[in-house]
Design a protein that fits this description.
This protein has 9 helices and 13 strands. It is an alpha+beta fold. The protein folds into 2 domains: 11-74, no CATH class; 97-299, NADH Oxidase (3-Layer(aba) Sandwich). Helix 5 crosses helix 8. The structure holds flavin mononucleotide. Flavin mononucleotide binds at residues 117-118, 120, 212-213, 266-269.
Length: 301
């Protein structure tokens, strides 16, 4: 594929609504109409059979997506840019807010490792315990300014470059002591803020989580991991895989923290673009590449 950027350098293409962002590994990028790029991508993908189906293409072609991600990951190095005009956090459209108190751990870590199992339940857990457990995972213990003007946070969970670009959004369904709906958890301010997300959007997430966990209903506490890819990509232009690795670290830590707190939980492989309704409720502008990079379903033990 040729582009205004280069004829021979590897390119990464991100489709985002009407626009396609085409980037080289060294961080140059340009915007192109998504239609044109999508047609080219469809042509390439159209040559492949669906996974598990009859294939006339070499097996290696089926893993082209995996290869592209691995190539991108291998080329990931930080770049130092001047301070970004984007602020690390955008103001939320806040409704109710409640303070979060990080949980005090119980039991030894060895006990927690021995006890950990994925469990998919519908019994409502105590909302105070859920919030405290999540708060313990995302609490910003210390912070400073990085060399590019971004806030470098230190939390229980590691994050590439200390960016911590993933925020949990708790979708509560009949949780004792907490209003149904979406709650954004802020590890800097240690507070949960109710989000004004429409019913349809919430139901889509609940339905997807129920299907993923093979449950007749959604987990009573569904934690969506919403990533601001921009936070990581500004420092690591080919660092999309770092965001996914951050997501794995965060999901596993939440899962283990739930075990320690006596809560049942399961990591869910939900992912995809974040609908405009949720983006608007979060107050994050359209210059940011938001994505759902996983979820954790929590229920009462
Ligand atoms: C990245 C990831 C995605 C997962 N996605 C799902 C899922 O969508 N639905 C589900 O029921 N379990 C999911 N799981 C849980 C696995 O099914 C579970 O870890 C596996 O069956 C082993 O069971 P154990 O965790 O009790 O050892 C996921 C786990 C990981 C790490």
């Amino acid at each position: 594929m040729t582009s205004p950027l280069s004829d021979d350098r590897p390119l990464t293409v991100r489709l985002d609504g009407d626009q396609a962002v085409v980037s080289t590994d060294d961080g140059d990028s340009c915007l192109l109409p998504a239609d044109a790029i999508r047609a080219a991508v469809d042509r390439v993908l159209g040559q492949q059979a669906p996974l598990g189906g009859e294939s006339t293409t070499p097996a290696s072609a089926l893993s082209a997506g995996a290869r592209a991600v691995l190539a991108e990951a291998a080329a990931t190095v930080p770049v130092i840019r001047p301070p970004s005009p984007l602020s690390p956090r955008h103001p939320l459209r806040r409704h109710g807010t409640i303070p979060l108190a990080p949980a005090v751990g119980v039991g030894s870590f060895a006990d927690v490792l021995a006890a950990r199992r994925s469990s998919r339940g519908l019994k409502p857990p105590d909302s105070g315990l859920v919030l405290a457990t999540l708060a313990g995972c995302i609490h910003t213990r210390s912070a400073g300014l990085g060399d590019d003007g971004w806030v470098l946070r230190r939390r229980a969970v590691p994050s590439a470059g200390g960016r911590h670009g993933i925020d949990p959004v708790l979708v509560a369904t009949a949780l004792t002591g907490l209003l149904d709906g979406a709650w954004h958890l802020d590890g800097d301010l240690l507070q949960a803020s109710q989000l004004d997300v429409d019913r349809d959007t919430l139901e889509q997430y609940r339905t997807a989580a129920a299907a993923a966990a093979v449950l007749p209903g959604p987990p009573p506490a569904l934690v969506l991991l919403v990533a601001d890819f921009t936070a990581t990509l500004l420092r690591y232009p080919t660092g999309a895989s770092l965001v996914w690795r951050d997501a794995g670290a965060l999901a596993a830590t939440i899962h283990l923290a739930c075990t320690a707190a006596g809560l049942e939980s399961v990591v869910l492989g939900l992912g995809g673009l974040v609908p405009v309704q949720l983006r608007a409720a979060l107050g994050w502008d359209t210059t940011r590449h938001l994505g759902l990079v996983g979820a954790v379903g929590i229920s009462g033990g």
